[in-house]
């Protein structure tokens, strides 16, 4: 489920080559999720890493994640504790 979500968001990524020859990538609707590397492959890899870190920071801070929702049944957590 998580990997499908991340893959879906990465497909929306936009990349462009800057004047210095580096590659800049970002995902529309995800402020702060961007990469800038010398090669396109390196930029894609870094963007994936940044998106993953962004995702877990959002969960940790209990913020809304665009296009993703999950529910936790707290009762079942205590049954197995």
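-> sequence recovered:
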């Amino acid at each position: 489920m998580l990997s499908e979500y991340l893959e879906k968001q990465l497909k929306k990524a936009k990349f462009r080559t800057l004047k210095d020859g580096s590659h800049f990538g970002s995902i529309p609707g995800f402020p702060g999720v961007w990469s800038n590397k010398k090669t396109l492959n390196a930029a894609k890899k870094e963007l994936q890493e940044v998106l993953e870190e962004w995702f877990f920071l959002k969960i940790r801070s209990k913020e809304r994640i665009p296009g993703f929702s999950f529910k936790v049944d707290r009762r079942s957590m205590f049954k197995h504790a």
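The first helix runs from residue 2 to 10.
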